[in-house]
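Reply to dn_fold:

You asked what the input looked like. This is it:
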Amino acid sequence: MSQAKPANTRIQRDTLYEELWKTPGTHLARKYGITYAVLGQVCRRHEIPRPPSGYWMMLKRGYDVERTPLPPITDQTLQAVEMVPVFAPQPNAEGAYGSSSEQRKAQRIRIPEDLSAPHPLVVAARKQLRAVSPDRHRLVCTNPKTAMDIRVGHSSVIRAHGLGAMPRRSV
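and this is what came back:
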């Protein structure tokens, strides 16, 4: 199922300025179907000041934060801002352009419980990870000469290789 590419959006420079100071840039970028980096490039090109780092946290905590005023521009071609989307913005159930928890769950990578034909280095790494005790830093390491070079916390070994239940060993 393919999605139609959304059309370009043309807005005025002062409208984008107002939106930037009312909505976090990451949310605004999703709304227009662009990345946050592209939004930054657009703002620099059109001389639109963005909120400083920590702005949204200061607002959340009740501080009165001064806006950087929108400077006048001499080149009138920069008055209109055209957003060329790179992906289709997806509003969530509430109509916002953030990703919902259901969408994040659907995007998770699924790893099969059993590998049908694992590489010999994977098999060797599994055997070593099952047999070795954690070191003084609570890391479990394999021998890189005979298996995949893996250093992982003992509690993450199961996730790292899908090893199933491993007995816990005291340090």
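Residues 120-131 form the longest helix (12 residues).
Hope that clears it up.
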